[in-house]
Amino acid sequence: MSAISMKVNGKAVCGTVEPRTLLVEFLRENLGLTGTHVGCDTSQCGACVVHVNGKAIKSCTALAVACDGAEVTTVEGLAKNGKLHPMQEAFREHHGLQCGFCTPGMLMAAVDLVKRKGKKLDEATIRHELEGNICRCTGYHNIVKAIQAGAENM
Amino acid sequence: MDNFNYHRPSKPADAAKAMKKAKDGKFMSGGMTLLPTMKQGLASPTDIIDLGGLKNSGVTAAAAKVVVKAGTVHADVASDKGVKKAIPALAKLASGIGDPHVRNRGTIGGSIANNDPAADYPAAVVGLGATVQTSARKIPGDKFFTGMFETALKSDEIVSAVEFPVPKRAAYVKFPNPASRYAMVGVMVAELKDGSVRVAVTGAGPKVFRVPEMEKALQAKFSADAIAGIQVKAKGLNSDIHASPEYRAHLVNVLARRAVAAAK
Ligand SMILES: Cc1cc2nc3c(=O)[nH]c(=O)nc-3n(C[C@H](O)[C@H](O)[C@H](O)COP(=O)(O)OP(=O)(O)OC[C@H]3O[C@@H](n4cnc5c(N)ncnc54)[C@H](O)[C@@H]3O)c2cc1C
Ligand code: FES
Ligand code: FES
Known about the structure:
The complex is a heterodimer. By secondary structure, chain A is of the alpha+beta class. Chain A folds into two domains: 2-77, Beta-grasp domain (Ubiquitin-like (UB roll)), CATH 3.10.20; 86-153, Orthogonal Bundle (DNA polymerase, domain 1), CATH 1.10.150.120. In chain A, 32% of the residues lie in helices and 16% in strands. Chain A has five helices and five strands. Chain A has helices at 23-30, 86-93, 103-117, 123-129, 141-152; strands spanning 2-8, 11-17, 49-52, 55-58, 71-73. In chain A, a hairpin with a 2-residue loop joins β1 (2-8) and β2. Chain B has a single domain, classed as 2-Layer Sandwich (Uridine Diphospho-n-acetylenolpyruvylglucosamine Reductase, domain 3), CATH 3.30.465.10. In chain B, 32% of the residues lie in helices and 24% in strands. Chain B has eleven helices and 14 strands. Bound molecules: flavin-adenine dinucleotide and FE2/S2 (inorganic) cluster (2 copies). Flavin-adenine dinucleotide (FAD) binds at residues 26-34, 36, 51, 70, 97-98, 102, 105-107, 109-111, 113-114, 116, 119-121, 153, 158-159, 180-182 of chain B. Residues 26-34, 36, 51, 70, 97-98, 102, 105-107, 109-111, 113-114, 116, 119-121, 153, 158-159, 180-182 of chain B line the site of flavin-adenine dinucleotide.
């Protein structure tokens, strides 16, 4: 077991993990942050996307020990003072979710996308950038619309 | 996933030492291939030696060559201004690997060391005539990939960088598997500064291969119609639920012609 510490959603946290503990397991099981989901075991679905040191990564495919000392943002860290993040608001407004299972990953991927590519995003760019996020319900149309609108309001 | 001992050395020599001591050790860079393989129970190393502590990442692009350190993630190769200017084909190749989150973790060193038959980078290493630098030696790209998931690396040898000569013009075109984005077939075509032409194909066979007939024809005339009639043999190409060998053989010609037309 190794002792690790991180900053998660702005708060200092620590814990003891096995080497094989995945970042997503540490977030969900040790910290109780169950907003981050696990939708596959092939690193393809993107339900587990969080930001580590400012970059969107799949937390199901990173060892918690390897993230020792990192700054992590999860979907729980998006809303501020009880107010939804503009991207969350846009998903609600544009019906960008049905069952909601993929949504945390979609939101974290979308916020990262805006950081990299700016607030004016065309449909083709959004679709290309969503290649690592799979949704079984919506057919993506409203997710794309939501991201386009959310980006403008960020 | 089975448990293992975790090491994070900060020097290559310590990494090699840890590997020698381990019963069944594995180096890890981005973990984007190693961890999914372990989750599926296809690998259960006793020790993981995380190369992240070596902090061996970054790109230097000069007029004659581009050097990419082994720990550089795909996203950084894709967005590097120097790479985009010197070898746009390489930046484009990196920008098409997997998805944004994979590109933020996966590294060039991990990709070539793994030598997945459908990986993109092997086409760049062979197609651009690159050299692989390891902890022990320099290996010509043509000699590096030895078989399906097999390379010339010794078990405690670490890839440290890849050196790409800047070509006169080049392009990489792939037909991605719609689910995984891996190459069903990907073709790198390059005209090097000495006038020689390379055509390297990934995804189609058990490992990356060159197409000498196309190279010869393109050397005489660098245009898509020069290779319109040159088909690779379907026999021995990969066959899976995604595509038959015949389909892949057909794609090689189509993508090679597109790459020639797009080369810059
Ligand atoms: C959903 C998904 C989609 C993907 N799509 C594509 C795609 O379209 N095209 C593509 O090419 N790839 C794709 N990949 C693979 C991706 O590019 C990986 O990043 C890459 O194959 C492995 O790099 P890594 O740094 O993660 O290596 P790791 O997983 O850490 O290691 C892979 C192997 O290489 C060894 N290794 C790692 N670094 C070194 C080193 N420096 N020296 C010696 N040995 C080393 C390890 O021991 C291990 O055996 C995809 C992966 C995923 C999960
Ligand atoms: S749970 Fe991480 S990609 Fe599916
Ligand atoms: S809303 Fe159900 S998986 Fe996307």
